[in-house]
Amino acid sequence: MIEYKDKMEEGFDPEENMDLNLQVQVIPKEQVDEEQLKEFIEFFRAGYDDRWVGEEYFRNVVMKNSTELLTMRKEGKLVAAFNFDHHRITDIAVNPEYRGSGIGVKLFQEAARHDPKSWITIAADAEGMLATVTSQGLNYLPVEDKNQMESLFQEGNGTRDNYQVEVSEVEIPWLAARLQEKGIEHSDTFIASSRNKSLHGPTYWQLLFQNQK
Ligand SMILES: CC(C)(COP(=O)(O)OP(=O)(O)OC[C@H]1O[C@@H](n2cnc3c(N)ncnc32)[C@H](O)[C@@H]1OP(=O)(O)O)[C@@H](O)C(=O)NCCC(=O)NCCS
Fold first, then answer.
1. Any idea of the CA torsion for 144, 150, 151, 152, to the nearest 10 degrees?
2. Which pLDDT tens digit goes with each residue over 56-109?
3. How far is the CA of 104 from the centre of ligand 1 (A)?
4. Most ligand 1 atoms within 8 A of CB, residue of 129, 136, 175 to mutate
5. What's the half-sphere exposure (Cβ side, CA atoms, 13 Å) at 153?
6. Considering only CA atoms, which residue is closest to atom 42 of ligand 1?
7. What is the arithmetic mean of pLDDT over 23-48?
8. Which of 17, 78, 141, 173 has the fewest C-beta atoms under 10 angstroms from its C-beta?
């Protein structure tokens, strides 16, 4: 029997998600059993589609480095989830059938509430995820200082030993415009990072966003 660490025990306000009737649970990695692991594998496989890392990598690397997972269910069905490695959100997805109704934003709101220091790296071409993390209801901002990026990577199980990054400028005018809608001035140029031993190879540029407390 899995003992879930229920958000309600931590002062989670169930009213908050009443409109979508979502049940939120935080599950320490140690409490994830094989049945639940299989559910997560199918969930992230469908959610990530051709960006999916594969079952073996998910089991032996992603879950090995995981510290906890957060799930959102609607009538028992898993509709959204993310995985934490300490403060880093390493995998995050909304079930494709439930996209476009604000659940992505709610996921990031839960991440910020559960861990005010939460952060995520997002591929510079992952427009849907970049659009989501910069939504009006969220307070995640780009971290563009190389040393700051490296010290965040140094905190994680999965990146502690290969925390060094290369940085490069990437032009994303629509993202700057989106930040400006929230009153945040930013040039069209963002500093993206790439880690040498990243799963995706050295040319995989990603932006780092961290919640601002
Ligand atoms: C990205 C993702 C989490 C968005 O979930 P969602 O529930 O559809 O998002 P929401 O309905 O909360 O929308 C969030 C905002 O992003 C925008 N958005 C979402 N997907 C978008 C897309 N594909 N293109 C452009 N904008 C998009 C929405 O219009 C909304 O904007 P608003 O806040 O200004 O209204 C979901 O599409 C997903 O799980 N994608 C697969 C995961 C993935 O690819 N991960 C790898 C990234 S490196």
1. 70
2. 999 999 999 999 999 999 999 999 999 999 999 999 999 999 999 999 999 999
3. 6
4. 129
5. 24
6. 93
7. 95
8. 173
What is residue 51's predicted lDDT score, i.e. its pLDDT?
Answer: 86
- Closest-CA residue, ligand 1 atom 44, reads 48
CA 128 to ligand 1 center in whole angstroms: 4
User: Do 88 and 171 fall within a single domain?
Assistant: no
Per-residue pLDDT, 197: 61
When divided into structural domains, the chain yields a total of 2
* Total-model pTM: 0.90
Same domain, 99 and 162: no
The alpha carbon of 1 and the centre of ligand 1 are apart by a number of angstroms equal to 34
Residue range 97-147, pLDDT digits in tens: 999 999 999 999 999 999 999 999 999 999 999 999 999 999 999 999 999
Amino acid at 68: E
Note whether 53 and 85 are same-domain residues: yes
